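so i finally got all the pieces together for this one. its three components total, 938 residues if u count the protein bits. some of the lines might not be protein, just check the labels. i wanna see the whole assembly predicted at once instead of chain by chain like last time, that was a mess tbh
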Amino acid sequence: MAHETIHTDGTQDPMNVTNPEHAQRHIVRPLQYTYVFGTLLLFTGITIGVAYIDLKWANPVIALGIACFQATIGILFFMHVAYQSRLIKITIGVGFFLFLVLVTMTMGDYVSRAWGMW
Amino acid sequence: MSAAIGNTIVSLPDQSTAQIPRHNYINNEHGLLSWLLTSDHKRIAILYLISITFFFFIGGAFAGLIRLELLTPQPDLVSSDTYNKFFTMHGIIMIFLFLVPSVPATLGNFLIPIMLGAKDLAFPKINLLSWYLYMIGGTLTLTALVLGGVDTGWTFTTPLSTHYLNTHVITAATAIFVAGFSSIFTGLNFIVTIHRMRCPGMTWFRMPLFVWAHYAASLLMVLGTPVLAIALTLVALERLFGIGVFDPTKGGDPLLFQHLFWFYSHPAVYIMILPGMGVISEVISTFSRKRIFGYTAVAFSSVAIALFGFFVWEHHMFIMGVSSYSALVFSLLTMLVAVPSAIKIFNWTFTLQKGSITFETPMLYAFGFMGLFTIGGLTGIFLGSLGMDIHLTETYFIVAHFHFVMVGGMLMAFLAGIHFWWPKMTGRMYPESLSKLAAVTTFIGFNLTFLPQFILGYLGMPRRYHAYPPEFQVLNVLSTAGATVLGFGYMLPMLYLAWSLKYGAIAGNNPWQATGLEWQIQSPPLMENFIETPVMDHEAYDYEWLANKTRNEVTTVG
Amino acid sequence: MDNALASTGLTTQPAPDPHPHETAVHAEHEHVALPQHRHHFETEEQQREAGSFGMWLFLVTEIMFFGGMFFAYLLYRNWYYPAFAAASSQLSVPLGGTNTAILITSGFCMALGVWAAEVRRRKMLVVTLILTTLFGLAFLGIKYDEYHEKYELHHIPGNNFNVSQFVNPAAYGIKEEPLAPDMAQKTQIFFFLYFAMTGMHAVHLIIGIGLLFWLTWRAHRGDFSSGYVAPIENFGLYWHFIDIVWLFLFPLLYLINRHPLH
């Protein structure tokens, strides 16, 4: 058991109704941090190793995929988001969504500039 | 519904017996330091109000100088360089130091915690930090001004701002960077407060629409402003080190700057207008003594404006060399924003229908807002259409368009809000007939200033030039005359509001018989707003609840 | 949605304790008036929730702040791929990789610090915070070394930028395809983005280290040993966020094309 949960949620503590979105106070245990730490280091090694193999277009895709995976477990466990309220998950989602809006809508301009010019 | 109207109060209550409460936030502590180091949201709101008014009149002075130069076709008052500095300083000060913080930082700061039944914003110290950041930003802007000014236009368009100008671009960019963080922290504070500090019973759909509007605007502040910050940082680095990211000779793309800049600066116009719409919702409901028609639709239209606002920025760049396919998409998306804006206007109009309307000063300003904002919004549709935009962009048509939205819309809403909540903020009434005169003067002056500019723009007079062909002079003289009236209309409130601080009639708790939580407490409020945490047991804008409450109070006292 | 429909009762009854050895943590929820409790919050829990929500909103603004530069990177990498590949290969993978590992370790120490604060171990908290600081400083040291090398090679964008290494790599003993002079000029854009992104990242680290000194001092004083973890927790979020930005910067800047001569 790498972690345990301290329950102070609405179901167990009828007085705690001010913030029912905050269902549980969760303390992540050091062992779980160690697993995450090991995974992050391992995937850093993998991303360096893969970079030296020629996989054509797949190189950047893999590199970004690994970075996204590392970021996800970092956010979920080091930053405790896995145990946070839905509000905080949505907030982070909105941030990344808006970044994607910036990238795709602007890239749409650059990609289509040459259309119809041939 | 008809029974509800029968119960509503049309005549205002007797104010002759009202007194200024002995304990309130103004006399809670004394001395300058108690203001400069305060963490009370109401005091910070007052600090903002003073500093924003100061910058408004500086920005206004530049507007006056611009109009004075344009009185004659010849470039006779100032040189073209000086003229460029005039409109740049006018734009920077009015947008970043007045319009963006205007309603949120003053009225929003003062009212949001009270409307939610909270004692303060979630982060009072960060709130104070925002004000200091604002003041640093303002000081840097004034520094740039005193050292010789900036002439990039408020848009800092590259490569003009990076390669061709030798004015204080970096100082001004730093100023906006710092002021931007002030706005981020204000927005962050509001969002957390609205999510986490609502009193018992205050559900999302019992919040006043003022709070909904600020919630939407805060989302834009938090999500958009950092992109402006990075765009301006890159401009500063480009100037300092010549690093080439926006420099075509080194492979950079100047349009990348505009993409990043407008990614913030288009949503920024909704940062400016949404809080104003919140004010109008409160004012219209109060002076029609009716619940806002379609409350949910108005609430969601605020959020929809915030969302759509992030999908339309390229319409500022249609003629700048963007892809025509992409421009087509952005032109279509631009039309989407018209929908939630129209929902608001229609719902306000339906609220007025069969309401018990009275014409106090805030209501006059609100009527001004509705008319002028509608014109500003509809001309926006002209400009959002690709074909029309090619003819109209960079002319006075666009100047008139955004002044109808920003000045006719937002400034009217700001003044409506200031008058509406002045009794709550200070405990004293403003002089009613003088303020009605000011509202009418502002409306006439505004239309005289900016309606001729639509015609000028349509005829082809370009913006940002200090000379023009003589056949445009009649319309320009009209516009300058209007600006004079407008300036007079803005001076008046400052004078009589200052006068009313000492000599105004004492307002009492609820001079308008409005339903919001802020009107149920003393004016000016206590340091901690409420004696005990309120419980919200009725919907927003419930005039029957208010009538019952008033009746019961009378019986218990009598 | 109706979560604010709440009673204002402040004193909770202690629920049956499922984990007796964690009573120290659990006691925090008895809502006694702790000194750090701010007057305008109804409960300690509300204050803590507001704090972490505010921190996350701030981090979202940071996403958008770095997002502008990531977009510039994406655009120019697509436009000038050969220049980006050649310039990227001039960065040192051993140094960059070591730095990645150092930063991950630093983040691990910070995570342990948050745990130490949660279980109220003052000494362990101080030690982990000091370790976090040291790893952060080590990262900056290596970063300085890398910047210095670029300075000596005239790879800092600006007037002194020198493209000869990319036009004639053989003369420098580099096994790379030479770039055409106009494309070689574009390496300057890569190096600008490299300096801007890693520099902005380093600025965040320096601010973080400054805050760490302050937090370590307060932890030593015992501020965070009585169940008041919010500052440590929120700083942890900031520190992990910086780590995560680097996890993207490393492959994007260092590993663009490490297999050119196949």
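Chain B touches chain C through 48 residues (CB under 8 Å).
Chain B is about 70% helix and 0% strand.
anyway lmk what u think
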